[in-house]
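User: I'm putting together a teaching handout on how sequence relates to shape, and I'd like one worked example. Could you take Acetyltransferase from Hyphobacterium lacteum, show the sequence you're using, and then write out its predicted structure as tokens right after it?

Assistant: Happy to. First the sequence, then the structure tokens directly below it.
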Amino acid sequence: MSDKKRLVIFGSAEIAELAHFYFKHDSEHEIVAFTVDDAYVEGDTFNGLPIVPWSEAVTRFPPDQYGMHVALSYMKLNRLRQAKFEQAKAAGYSLASYICSRSATWPDLVMGENCFILENQTIQPTVKLGDNVMLWSGNHIGHGTHIGSHTYFASHIVVSGHCRIGERCFFGVNATLRDFLKVGDEAFIAMDASLTKDVEAGSVVLGAPATVFGPDDPKGRRIRNNYFGLDD
């Protein structure tokens, strides 16, 4: 019998396929199946493994014997991924995090459950990551920075030291943040944005130097809703 920890992946699309690859080739976990909500089951297998309706998952893969990893995208501004994270937790599953062995970290890194951290990160000392944080490849997370739960980073983002980032935020490719900044919950920091001052929850930040649309700005709300498929 394998000594690896057995894991079920929640999801059956691109992110789930990537999670399967990384966990398989660079972790102590063995992926044994996929699961999705019953209405989204298409076929019996995905990536060569069984795909199980959520209504059957707990019976076929009991939480005391199997872990889970929720592998969904940032759509709905990470709210869907948060909802499924909470659904799996409520069912009793431990949610495995993955951090690529080809990233630079320090022993004092604090990381929550269900994080997905890809290659070539530079994560400096005293960084804290909440639950369900996704960091795509090649980011710099400066010392003393805290990133809130359910937040998504694309690639090649530079966060300077001692920043405080809220929950369910989205950071696009090549965004940059000055040190000691505060970013509120559900902020959308777009590709190439250069942020030099604090932003409120729900803000949209575009360009360099940054144009900031506050949470009540109609244009900012349209941009945010259109990009993430929201109806706020």
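A couple of points you could highlight for students: The longest helix spans residues 14-25. Helices lie at 14-25, 54-60, 79-90, 218-228.
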